[in-house]
Amino acid sequence: MKAIRIMEYGETDALQLLEMPVPQPRAGEALVRLKTAGLNFIDIYMRKGVPRVALPVPFTPGREGAGIVEAIGDNVTDIKPGARVAFTGQVGSYAEYILVKAAELIPLPDDISFELGAAFPLQGMTAHYLTHDYYPVKAGDTVLVHAAAGGVGLLLVQWLNHMGARVIGTVSTEEKAETARAAGAHDIILYTQQDFVAETLKLTHGKGADYIIDGVGKTTFTKDLDAVRRMGWITLFGSASGPAEPLLPNSLQAKSITVSGGSLFNHIQSREDLLRRSRDVIDAIRAGWLKFKIDHVFPLAQASEAQHLLESRQTSGKVILSME
């Protein structure tokens, strides 16, 4: 099989297309013939060897994909060869085949494409837990979403809008502003031209946002403390601009702010949670109010170009690798 391998940490030229043997499933595993793989920022951090997410080299990157079960190992009863599936979490999706624990596979209905199957698991279920598991979003709440035109951002905007919240989105360009507005953002802040704290306070008549969802990190998190209301909530779930600066816990006392950190994989520890969240996302797609924007589809051999596009923040929506 063909697979992208990282032999040493580095820039996008570290992604090499090589021939590898097709693995064989062990007990509890399924061999999936991949049709598509989804790109995420964590793939870039892993390629660079960023501490906390780095894997020993060599390895095949990618933590999300969709395809068809080719074979199963012993003790697998609820997934059969020929089944359409999606997954997130298992590293190695930049390849034509991958082994995945059967308990971590998401059944992919016939009416959901393989491209969508590689787009919705990580980002869709991330948007789900960020809108359901922390601050209890109610109709009329004001929620500030950073990078509102990004992959997760666009889904958050749609989900919060569906819940009746007022969404303020930060974006870097006018083009991304239009994308976020089309997804349902009520107000847009161009953070490259405006101070998002001052604009948020102006839009909320000095009160601040009820809830801030931050996947950017270093360039935004410290200012979030000024943009959130008294007794408001901030959830940090990513670090697209780098890790957030250290925070003195006592600094939260002045406004009684709650700060939480999020990672999807803590929210899908059980198969029941995985199926419940994925089912909610699929139901929302089918209902028509949750739409995934597939920004670019690259062949597997162009993984370096795909990662460069994502890393340079030139995307608005999901970047996909195709094995076809």
From TrEMBL:
UniProt EC number: 1.6.5.5
Family: Belongs to the zinc-containing alcohol dehydrogenase family. Quinone oxidoreductase subfamily.
Keywords: NADP, Oxidoreductase
Species: Aquicella siphonis
GO molecular function, one term: NADPH binding
Catalytic reactions of this protein: 2 a quinone + NADPH + H(+) = 2 a 1,4-benzosemiquinone + NADP(+)
Protein name: NADPH:quinone reductase
Top-level EC class as recorded in UniProt: oxidoreductase
Domain Enoyl reductase (ER) intervals: 10-321
